[in-house]
Design goal:
The protein has 305 residues and is an alpha+beta fold. It has three domains: 100 residues, 3-Layer(aba) Sandwich (Rossmann fold); 123 residues, D-amino Acid Aminotransferase, Chain A, domain 1; 62 residues, 2-Layer Sandwich (Dna Ligase, domain 1), CATH 3.30.1490. 37% of the residues lie in helices and 24% in strands. Strand 12 and strand 13 form a beta hairpin. The protein is globular.
């Protein structure tokens, strides 16, 4: 089976995507799989470069990769691919939509509002959330253009920066606490990881991708919090109609978990969060790739039959 590992793309997370894709290629040639590098440099590349592949393993992040666009193209071309489908990818990429769905299903997430221009921004609305607040692009990833703001002038700056990369910016209540993540694989929760940034005040781009930027270790919370986290992660995965695998990020404040967001194409370098969690149950990096491929093929085969 010829597997095209699709990476690169046109988003601000291109370099992260290339790292994920090239790490996958080191381990993909097993059980009759033949890995092929497919680097996207433009929107139109996908049509030419996927010719002759049997399966697309997506290592894309951000715009045109994680937002349902590539998924819809692959659906129309009847090329099976890894992970979530078009609808869940599009909804989960939109933080505002994601939080609206979560709230409608009784899942706890921090208060927020959306602005589309500086004229939309009202100081009274920010004060109602209470300082500090988080300002970030609504459809961004990897904490690009994300700021923790302690006064209105900082919020204005954050919104200006966010509008350079997205048409909408989220202003969100800042929840101080443990930052953790619960990966979901084929309907099962993997071990919970706690993230401790060593550079910067939160898990920003520098902490995520620079060597020594953060420490991520498996954590075992006591009951009932442990079970609450798993149930919230699985419910989030289900209500957002995710498939195969995704990662649900939380902040735990004084024993109460708040859902931050869900990542439908989490980073897949060998030291990324998802492989680290899988290793906690004895699942190797190669074994994780195999499970993702098998579950994705099964899902897409069932949908076509």
């Amino acid at each position: 089976m010829k597997i095209g590992v699709i990476m690169g793309g046109i988003s601000s997370e291109r370099e992260v995507s290339l790292s994920s894709g090239r790490e996958i290629l080191k381990y993909i040639n097993f059980n009759g799989y033949e890995g092929v590098e497919i680097v996207l440099d433009s929107k139109m590349d996908i049509y030419e470069k996927i010719q002759g592949i049997d399966f697309a393993l997506l290592a894309l992040h951000g715009k045109y990769g994680e937002d349902g666009t590539i998924q819809s193209i692959l659906d129309s071309l009847e090329v099976p691919y890894s992970g979530c489908g078009m609808v869940s990818s599009a909804v989960c990429m939109d933080k505002d939509l994601t939080k609206c769905v979560l709230r409608s299903k009784g899942l706890l997430t921090a208060d927020w509002f959306i602005v589309r221009s500086l004229e939309d921004l009202e100081e009274s609305s920010v004060k109602a959330l209470g300082y500090p607040v988080v300002v970030k692009p609504n459809r961004g990833g990897s904490s690009v253009a994300t700021f923790i703001c302690h006064n209105f002038s900082e919020v204005v700056h954050g919104v200006k920066e966010g509008l350079l990369v997205d048409a909408e910016v989220m202003v969100e209540e800042f929840v101080q606490g443990d930052e953790i993540t619960v990966p979901i694989l084929d309907g099962e929760a993997l071990p919970t990881l706690i993230i401790k940034p060593l550079k910067g005040g939160f898990f920003d781009y520098q902490s995520k991708y620079e060597e020594g930027g953060a420490e991520e270790v498996i954590i075992e919370y006591e009951e009932p919090l442990k079970q609450v986290l798993i149930e919230m992660a699985l419910k989030t995965f289900k209500v957002l109609k995710c498939d195969v695998y995704a990662r649900v990020d939380f902040i735990v404040r004084e024993g109460i978990p708040y859902i931050l967001e869900i990542n439908t194409l989490p980073g897949m370098t060998k030291t990324s969060l998802f492989p680290k969690s899988a290793k906690g149950i004895g699942l190797s990096y190669q074994g994780l790739l195999e499970k993702i491929i098998e579950a994705s093929l099964r899902l897409r085969s069932d949908k076509r039959s």
